[in-house]
Amino acid sequence: MAPFYVPTSLDERVLRPETLSPNIIKAEYGVRGEIYLEAQKMVNAGKEVVFMNVGNPHALGQKALTFPRQVMALCQAPFLLDDPNVGKLFPRDAIARARQLLKMTGIGGVGAYSDSRGVPGVRQEVARFIEHRDGFPSDPEHIYLTDGASPAVKLALQLLIRGEHDGILVPIPQYPLYSATVQMLGGSLVPYLLDEKKGWGMNIDLLKESVLSARRKGIMVRGLVVINPGNPTGQCLERGDLEDIIKFCIKERVALLADEVYQVNVYQSKHPFVSFKKVLCEMGAPYSRSLELFSFHTVSKGFTGECGQRGGYVEFTNIHPEVLEQCYKIVSVSLSPNVTGQLMVGMMCNPPQPGDPSYKQYAAESKEVLESLGRKARALSEGFNKFKNMQCNEVEGALYAFAKLQLPPGAIAAAKKAGKAPDAFYCLELLKATGMSATPGSGFGQEDGTFHFRTTILPEEDIVPGLLKKVERFNDEFMTKYSTMQSRM
Ligand code: DCS
Q1: Hey, what domains does the chain have and what are their CATH numbers?
Q2: Contact (CB, 8 A) for 248 and 207
Q3: Which atom of ligand 1 lies nearest, measured to the CA of 300?
Q4: Separation of CA 242 and ligand 1 centre (Å)
Q5: Tens of pLDDT, residues 91-104
């Protein structure tokens, strides 16, 4: 007999769903939820699935830009730099950049922990990029490099949330990183609605109402999340909106979390991307000294699309110096962001310049990626708008089409019977019929009584027309089936 008690059933495990923190159980992440798991099962059963639920560019065929990968290859294998043939295999500027980056990382190269805030030289490259983009100074001391934008968002939320009485204003619909992280940190989500009829624009009056209603419940609103360009909604905010948001934050004493990870993914010229930092600086004092701003960016999107490399950054503006010290302490607990991701950030911020040997190829590759995304954005939204009971706002930016479904009561009843949200029911049927894995609007939050689904615009261009045809056929059949059911009910 064992000298200690051996548990015999799962009910005796230390860790069971009912013994976990309720904040873990309550957190939801619909982008990889039920539909995604079903899609995985279909793949395992040998069926063809197009994963349109995640904005994961390379997984859907977007090619890595040549220059950053050449530099990365040399940084990973620095002995190649001593090879007499290196000049035949790599362009001069890639070799020079690899040497420069390896100098920045020091003797340990990509194999050593870096400073917990990131490699100082790369933080300088980020600061120079921001200065060039916005036309205002940026201090590398106020930039932290992170493993993609996600940990940077988490860091800002950790600073803001002390408990359930601290609230964060999050757009509805939103990218569920926000709702899930607020939940996991034990804070309160304070939703504010985006206006679908106005191209998913922000309405400051609705924002104020949300703050007032939260305060009535004893919640102290400490942060506002704005995703621009929007995920899942695809809108690009106008400059005037940004000014209003900045004034609102200062007046209501909330910090602003500016999620600008899609700043390069803009497909029209009516609403070009402009950063919150730039607008804030242009508004001048006292605004420019008042707003507490966190700005996020990543290598996962844009024409780099390097999600797997996990590189991102946060720029802190007007954050109390002692809070920054606490931030440094917090990131130090995780030792170091991954170093290759940091180098990717450096190359995103400091690409080849005109006259450099790699410039032409870099410019051609990035232009091709963006133009193709623009064509796909238009094809999908225009296609969806032609389908029965479906409407989709223009995809002005980001990587997604977010279509509204007018579901017949018969479909809503069938979903209820199946124990599913109506748009999850639609997405599941869509997946089974077409192999297209989309994400239901319920995964992002939506106005009560409305239904949506999100697809990324990333699939390779030549499969888009075929995909649209399949969706149209499925959608027609679905809507007809459940409209007739409704009349028989
Ligand atoms: N912010 C927004 C608005 C995002 O859409 C994403 C990722 C992130 C932050 C975090 O990205 P990284 O951590 O990779 O920098 N977008 C997810 C999505 O909606 N589909 O795929 C990933």
Answers
A1: 17-48+366-488 (3.90.1150.10), 103-349 (3.40.640.10)
A2: yes
A3: 14
A4: 21
A5: 999 999 999 999 99
